[in-house]
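Entry type: protein chain
Record version: 2
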Amino acid sequence: MAPGGTVAGRPQPQTTAEPAGGPFVRHAPDGRRAQYVATTGFSGFLGLPTVSMPGYCKGYKLQTQINATNTATPPTLVADFPDSFYSLVQMKDAFGTQLLTGPGYNILREVNLYSGQFGLDLMRDPQNSPVQNVYNTAASSASTITFSRYISFEFAKAYGVISGANAALLPVLQLNTAATSGLFSANPPTTGLSAQETLDSDFYWLPSAPTDPPGLGTTCQWILQPCNPAIPSAYNGLVQLPRMGGYLTMLILELRGSTGLRQTADGSGVWPARPKIVVDGVPLIDTLMTTWFEDIAISTGIGAGANFINNAANTTQTGTVPVQRPSGTIGINRKTSLSQRDFGLLDTGEIFLNTNPGTQLEMAGYPWGTQANAPSTLNAIVGQVVPSGQLVQGLPEV
């Protein structure tokens, strides 16, 4: 006799699959998943293992909340607040290769701002995120600062991602947190101190068709390295950037004085009035510093709108700068292959600066400016693409 009842229902077929053929991004939609929520205080270390995801990791979202109760004397925030909470950020792949290494301000603020790997237009600067709030410095108040930052692997659409489905081959994120002096230069809070970190991962789902992301195995590495020599006041000469290799997407240069503070007198102060960027002894860029500021504003929008002209009164009035250029920093942009505008992840890579370990990059000033906190150190934070095989150029995503 035939058994009674009904058979189990079959699962519904996947209806969102694309027909075979075409680029990787057609078959691999965006996804996000939680990694962990941790509680780490000041002067701590966070190195929890990341977890796998069903696809290719494009980056990690790090949201930080810091709580403190101010003393009876209002605290003074440091210039690099709040990113200076992380004294060191290290992201390594499963084989120990350094992908991002440097202090929190450089890796979480400057790289997000200049690289275009975080966002565009107003959201190019993570400080403009709706997540971030303003720390209340009022005396004796319980205050909180929340800020979101992005640790990106993807430097062009779907290019630079890391395999995330193999739990044995996952990247490692290590965060060192600073003492209260890393956030407050005077009258730091002593009570109510706590911090919470929430880490999520962005990824492309495993594709529904047999296809790989372009150039799988290629990485874009951001490593802070100091340049030599240290720069005395009114120095005449060259400063050597660290030896590099691969294809350079963006060169971020940062000048800090002997006290560790960024040198803020740009254009007419410590920086040269007319700097030169020299590649293997040949000047690649020879320009006014103020024109350099204009170039970075044209390509990225950073620093644009610093002044507005009132023609009727024939006067200059200070306006609002939608995306601030952090004082003491400047960038050389090599992500304008499609236009004079940097479109973030939309770039063909045609004009990345090709270097090898023998390439010598230098910055010249004749002279560098006078300074009170001498000597200064020029730091280089460079987006360096190390390709797996030949660099994929053009637009493989379309």
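Comment: Residues 104-115 form the longest helix (12 residues).
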